[in-house]
Write a structure and sequence with these properties.
By secondary structure, this protein is mainly beta. It has one helix spanning 28-34; strands at 7-11, 18-21, 47-53, 60-66, 77-80.
Length: 81
């Protein structure tokens, strides 16, 4: 297990901010499940921001997704709601 490169980090409007091991095929809904769901104190949460460093580590990509899209995730990302 290499949490320095093979991880997903989730924070924001979730019940538990968590960093967990990435497994090929993980989806946005899986990350929300590991974070014990969306916190009901936050209303109208319908999107997530995904942050990922480029392979050379020099550039950050910021992508916004609707929760209904439920995209497949890549290793080394941070999710924010």
């Amino acid at each position: 297990m290499d949490l320095e490169r093979n991880f997903i980090d989730i924070s924001g409007a979730v019940n538990k901010e968590v960093k967990f091991q990435f497994v090929d095929g993980d989806k946005l809904s899986d990350a929300i499940l590991f974070a014990r769901g969306l916190n009901p104190a936050y209303t109208n949460i319908d999107s997530a921001q995904i942050s990922r460093l480029s392979n050379n580590g020099l550039n950050e990509q910021l992508l916004n997704f609707s929760l209904s899209e439920n995209p497949i995730l890549l290793r080394g990302i941070e999710l924010k709601f």
